[in-house]
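S1.2 Input.
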Amino acid sequence: MSLLLSKTKNPFFEHADAEYFLAERDGLVVGRIAAIANRLHNETHHDRVGFFGFFESIDDDAVARSLLDAAAGWLRPRGFDTLRGPANPSVNDEYGLLVAGFEFPNTIMMPHNPAYYAGLLDRAGLAKARDLIAYQGGTENQFVPPPERIVRAVALAKDRYRVTVRSLRLADFKAEVERVKVLYNRCWEDNWGAIPMTDHEIDHLAAQFRPVVVPDLVPFAECDGKPVGFGLVLPDFNQVLRHNRRGGMFPAALKLLWALKTNRIRRCRILLLGVLPEFRGKGVDAALYHWIWTKAGGRQITWGEGGWVLEDNPAMNAGLAKLGMTPYKTFRIYERAL
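S1.3 Output.
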């Protein structure tokens, strides 16, 4: 968390600024919030949206309202006309407030919050801007083969469009990261609220992922040797870390490395799966899903979370349904006028 919030160490702050607020009562901290000015978002979308994030509060309307008012009070004189969030600190990080699916444990790099938070934001005058849907598929006890329709789509993509899939080349990691830079911003540029990641941000993220990345779970789809899509899947480390009763990072790291080496993690999260616009509808996404499905199964990972996906992205939602995945969590982006 300290690295994420650091204005000198997190490259996000090369194009953004933030102010952090705490709410106190009787000498005790009862809430927190960040007000975030993301210049890259505003330059991309030509708007004056400011953000709030890292929101935590006791179940008290006055506390929540005071936090949101503090964020609004910091953003308004800087020319922003809308407050939106939660963004921790942007759409490229943990995004949204969990509003449905509380009975399921949280996966890596996804928000999880008390159920009463939604009521606090509603009563503070915020309204839904968009819902984000997370999907689940498989079971934690037994490998389920991919649907036959996916197998057929992969064969078609290979025969008709010369699509092949390969795993991340760890020995060529720097060049692989450069390929991701080209793909990432083109694959998601049309999504609502999307902003490009800078080269420095992707390098920073890649450095954090490298020690724990599983090359077979980072597939690249290629057509005649040219990258046209990629996926990023991580084992759900929360399955191990939530039981780290001894506390501290050192025992947690040892436990995590042991779990990875011995294939003890049965869950994964599909963080990213994108295809260049000109190659959509040609089975490239099916080829990536099939690769992930079978390679994860080979590591005894038999359950996965996909998403999030915007509620109004029919192609992605239909594609996940065809895979046999089902919606199981909803995250909400809120906003109000300033």
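S1.4 Remarks. The chain has a mean pLDDT of 92.
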